[in-house]
Amino acid sequence: MSSPLSPDAGGPGRALARFIGGPLDGREDAIPVARAVAGSTVTHTYLHGGPKIETHYQLHRTPEGGWEYRLKPCS
After folding, report:
1. Origin, by domain of life (predicted)?
2. Among 12, 19, 22, 24, which residue is least crowded by beta carbons within 10 Å?
3. What is the pTM assigned to this prediction?
């Protein structure tokens, strides 16, 4: 497991969030601190070379104070 992300590691006014699971696993996104709200959802849409595939991630706070986008299960 890699080290936890600092809440301000994305730069001034930004928080760094790591994607867990799915096609974006391991990637990081610097999000505005104002947009870092636990429970918010982002959608990744894959369109290349086949049918459209949507993957949904939900933002969670880590115990270390950082952020993670965790893969949402299919509903």
Report:
1. Bacteria
2. 12
3. 0.77
Q: What is the domain partition of the chain in residue ranges?
A: 14-71
- Output the CA angle 25-59-75, nearest 5 degrees: 80
pLDDT number for residue 34: 85
pLDDT digit string, tens, across residues 19-56:
999 999 999 999 998 888 999 999 999 988 888 889 99
Q: CA–CA distance from 67 to each of 9, 14, 18, 24, 56 (Å)?
A: 10, 11, 7, 15, 16
Amino acid identity at 33: V
Distance, CA of 57 to CA of 67 (rounded, Å):
12
- What is the layout of strands, in order, in the sheet containing 41-46? 28-32, 14-20, 67-71, 53-61, 41-46
